[in-house]
Amino acid sequence: MAVEVLVLKEGARGEKRVAATPETVKKLLAAGAQVQVESGAGLGAGITDQAYLDAGAALAGPGARASADLVLCVQAPTADAIDGLKRGATLVGVLHPQADEARAAAIQAQGLHAFPLERLPRTTRAQAMDVLSSQAGMAGYKAVLIAAQLAPRFFPMLTTAAGTIRPSKVLIVGAGVAGLQGIATARRLGAQVEGFDVRPETREQIESLGGKFLDLGVSAAGEGGYARQLTDEERAEQQRRLAEHLRGIDVVVCTAAVPGRPAPKIITAAMVAGMKQGSVIVDLAAETGGNCELTRPGESYEHDGVTIAGPLDLASMGAVHASEMYARNVYNFVALFLKDGALSVDWNDELLAKTVWPQREPAA
After folding, report:
1. Is 130 an active-site residue?
2. In this structure, is residue 130 part of a structural domain?
């Protein structure tokens, strides 16, 4: 009997993305699976139930969760929802099991093969499955658009009958995928853009997008392309130099993150106090605490003349394209173990062995 695949309707507040599109449904069917989609799952991303039906999927009935062999989601289901899944089923999505004890316990109690895609090794082979990168690109794009909307000034230089308007000075903090997309977007809007990252190897990437690398003389190059945590002395020197530089900046977009940890605090209250009136900070890292000490996740407010925004669910704001990318990532990952209508996991495959939770080492 063919594997039953179920695409969940997301239950998290504000979540508009979906884990499969009609395009990837067709690919799953071609791999021999039977696909069911919960009614309304794609509406937030502009995909109707009929579009899924036209692609060959069926709408999920009341017992679909209890019978599905492979369950696809964006954000993790609640512990109660996990309890309702088929025992021993495979669950694929951004699950963060260690962030919620009840969720982790439910996954283990149901004997699920859970594949939290945020754990995927970031290797060349895994790029087509990298949901963190694809969704960060949308988040970086949206963060800059929010900044442009909040800023009481033009981004580009303009020559008008009323005189010349100088371009806004925009600083992007963090040069990961979100930060680089932010730099590219701010440049397209005509701003004068700088990129700051404690990893010196990002200079070339920042400059290739037309930004200027802000060198504060502190390096935190780490493993796997991520930054390491700074020492107290390094952080103090970084903050002193950054505080001086921020006095001349119009817009700051923060994107710095360390996987599995709260976002590093880079912009202090004292730095904000030194910024000029009308400046804007958009903190993309708000979901993990924020890079700015004054960020309030989910809020936008004014502090001594500086607007500070901590938007959440940024990728979901671009749900159509974010879902297209996410669904392709998910299909590319699932294709590692869905073959000829059956699930067959090769634990010698590093991508599977290191993504599954709890982790297991590849077989000898």
Report:
1. yes
2. no
